[in-house]
Amino acid sequence: MKTTIAEVGKYVGQDVTIGAWIANKRSSGKIAFLQLRDGTGFIQGVVVKNEVDEKVFEAAKSITQESSLYVTGEVRVDERSPFGYELGVKEIKVISGSVDYPITPKEHGTEFLMDHRHLWLRSKKQHAVMKIRNEIIRATYEYFNNNGFVKVDPPILTGSAPEGTTELFHTKYFEEDAYLSQSGQLYMEAAAMALGKVFSFGPTFRAEKSKTRRHLIEFWMIEPEMAFYEHEDSLKVQEEYVAFIVKSVLDNCKLELGVLGRDTSKLENITAPFPRISYDDAIQFLKDQGFTDIEWGDDFGSPHETAIAESYDKPVFITNYPTALKPFYMQPHPTREDVVLCADLIAPEGYGEIIGGSERIHDYELLKQRIQEHDLPESAYKWYLETREFGSVPHSGFGLGLERTVAWISGVEHVRESIPFPRLLNRLYP
């Protein structure tokens, strides 16, 4: 019976054949232990000398790290293993050998591992992070599909900057200028006017020259937009969605969280509602904490966000930032001209902002005024203004950065480990 490691529990006491690679091995005279992986998981294969043909045992002893093989054996329960099963190996058929595999069980430097990212992905910890990333994506689709959202795909090539910044990657689109998208939001707003509640999931690009553990040049965003949703309605969706994906990982990735040594008690507490602190109160809190350099009107850096987050055991919303700090499209506060109806969601444990969201301006004249105040080319935003000209409604949305969320839930230190092939300030290889 040919199967995968993930499915061996169905065949306890039976012989199965698995296509696998040798992740590691050790042997002691009359017994060899093969650490096998096949992409679905890891299992130990036990080869006992006096129970197999001599050629099989010699193959087990001589096979090298990351060689590929078909291995046949009996599935056995193994309560000592986190996986719960092992394979009593009976036959080995080598498919392809591997000589001088560069990533050995010893310690390697970060740059070396990043240069060999295509191979580093095979390791047990990186495998666990990718499985958690996959579960977050799967749960994202489940949450939004179950709550009446329609998946819409905004363009990656755009003719203008959604947030009016200069941190864009420029390219030529035949005879026109074009940019790699930094957000699909504006297009999602148009889609919400057609479909009510929508979400996108795709790559975004920021030409920001940052080297922090929180930043990538290319990253993936989940961006919902909701017609007839005001700011408070959006906050409820955000906390429900984040709580849902955390629970999904806890329920479906126990083995992977264990491999990473994640303290799951910190995740088990992530339930809605989340605490909130206004920007005004956050400034005062930081001053009280000894941040004497921070003043009202300043944006928060990583140390500021971390200090605020450490006061809570759940993600925390920082609400109502100054108008001058935020993009042109955010709805003004109803009783204050100096702040807007927005919130950033700050993850615990120093992982920073994972969501930015707001109610969007729905008044045509005000949006037009904001575009002019930000010196944006009105011709490029004509289509966006038309979404307010023809039947505008209150609407809200947000964007969740997938890689920061994966890093937080997985407990890995740097976002470069939360995406298969990271693009960093000085890294375009492999």
Automatic annotation (TrEMBL):
InterPro entries: Aa-tRNA-synt_II, aa-tRNA-synth_II, aa-tRNA-synth_II/BPL/LPL, Asn-tRNA-ligase, Asp/Asn-tRNA-synth_IIb, NA-bd_OB-fold, NA-bd_OB_tRNA. Its EC number is 6.1.1.22. Pfam families: tRNA-synt_2, tRNA_anti-codon. It catalyses: tRNA(Asn) + L-asparagine + ATP = L-asparaginyl-tRNA(Asn) + AMP + diphosphate + H(+). PROSITE patterns: AA_TRNA_LIGASE_II. SUPFAM superfamilies: Class II aaRS and biotin synthetases, Nucleic acid-binding proteins. It is found in: Cytoplasm. It is an enzyme of class 6 (ligase). Residues 130-430 form the Aminoacyl-transfer RNA synthetases class-II family profile domain. Its main location: cytoplasm. GO terms for molecular function: asparagine-tRNA ligase activity. Keywords: Aminoacyl-tRNA synthetase, ATP-binding, Cytoplasm, Ligase, Nucleotide-binding, Protein biosynthesis. Homodimer. HAMAP family: Asn_tRNA_synth. Belongs to the class-II aminoacyl-tRNA synthetase family. PANTHER family: ASPARAGINE--TRNA LIGASE, MITOCHONDRIAL-RELATED (PTHR22594:SF34), ASPARTYL/LYSYL-TRNA SYNTHETASE (PTHR22594). This is Asparagine--tRNA ligase.
